[in-house]
Design brief:
Elements: H1 2-11, H2 42-54, E1 57-61, H3 70-76, E2 96-100, H4 111-124, H5 130-140, E3 145-151, H6 155-169, E4 175-179, E5 189-195, H7 201-213, E6 220-224, H8 225-229, E7 245-250, E8 257-262, E9 267-268
Parallel strand pairs: 1-2
Antiparallel strand pairs: 2-4, 3-5, 3-6, 4-5, 6-7, 7-8, 8-9
Helix pairs in contact: 1-2, 1-4, 4-5
């Protein structure tokens, strides 16, 4: 999969940083040093995210690992303590920390076909819009997506990650991952919580409810994986917003609930 993603980054006309990424940020939506074309920093975000994907991950797979080992695994791999680019104890690079649920399904679709269709679309000169990318995703079965939350390293991050990770362990969530700590880069880390179909709005809303039920109150943004594969990040050359839903938790509402807005249509969903 990493090889296909690397080709997608190249076909999207992005710089290849997979072998030379500087330790600025591994996060999907976070800041990076402005090089190459300062107008399109999404190109750096994409390359850094790819570099994180290609580095080793720390994974707890609920389908294979005894549940009794989870608490110790979680304590030993708190995201605010695991360093992105290794530690003095001799630990090497770590791209992500991930928990896969008992119902984990790694169906990523036809990435090679997506790559070919994307290149044809760019060469045609047709506008790059959400609807166009959605059609490509449907045609090639690249339908997964994720809610994103960005938190400062420390207790709140570790607590939110533990809550989400336990939901994955219990089979309520397909999978989740969290970026590792980079003291020289962005001050925030990102937690990604996945579902199978970004085109199914009810499924996206249901996943938000599951996340909120774990106690997470911070703002969330939802991003289709097809955007990630095609290098569509913040400040991209096509002026697409890199996320398509926004969720804010209303503490004053009775009962408390999320207010979700579709950022493509600018309409309230809940």
């Amino acid at each position: 999969m990493a090889k296909v993603k690397l080709n997608l980054i190249r076909q999207a006309r992005l710089p290849d940083l997979s072998k030379s990424a500087t330790p600025d940020s591994v996060m999907e939506e976070e800041e990076a040093a402005q090089e190459w074309d300062p107008l399109f920093t999404s190109e750096i975000h994409a390359a850094e995210a790819l570099a994180a994907d290609m580095d080793p991950w720390i994974v707890f797979d609920s389908r294979k690992t005894p549940r009794s080992e989870f608490d110790a695994w979680l304590e030993n791999n708190r995201p605010s303590r695991v360093h992105r680019y290794g530690s003095e104890e001799g630990v090497g690079n770590v791209g992500w920390i991930s928990v896969r649920g008992t119902n984990f399904c790694n169906s990523i679709g036809d990435l090679e076909g997506l790559q070919e269709s994307w290149e044809k679309h760019l060469d045609s000169g047709r506008p790059v819009t959400f609807q166009a990318v959605r059609e490509l995703a449907l045609n090639h079965g690249v339908l997964s997506g994720k809610w994103l939350m960005h938190l400062e390293p420390g207790f709140k991050l570790d607590h939110a990650w533990e809550s989400v990770a336990r939901a994955a362990l219990d089979g309520k969530i397909n999978s989740a991952k969290v970026s590792t700590y980079d003291p020289s880069g962005s001050s925030r880390q990102v937690i990604c919580v996945y579902n199978q179909n970004f085109t199914d709005e009810s499924e996206v809303v249901r996943l938000d409810s599951i996340i909120r039920a774990t106690g997470v109150k911070c703002p969330l943004n939802y991003k289709p994986d097809v955007y990630t594969y095609l290098g569509i990040y913040r400040n991209n050359r096509w002026k697409l917003c890199p996320t398509i839903y926004e969720s804010k938790f209303d503490l004053e509402c009775v009962p408390r609930r999320s207010h979700i807005v579709n950022k493509v249509t600018n309409l309230e969903v809940t």
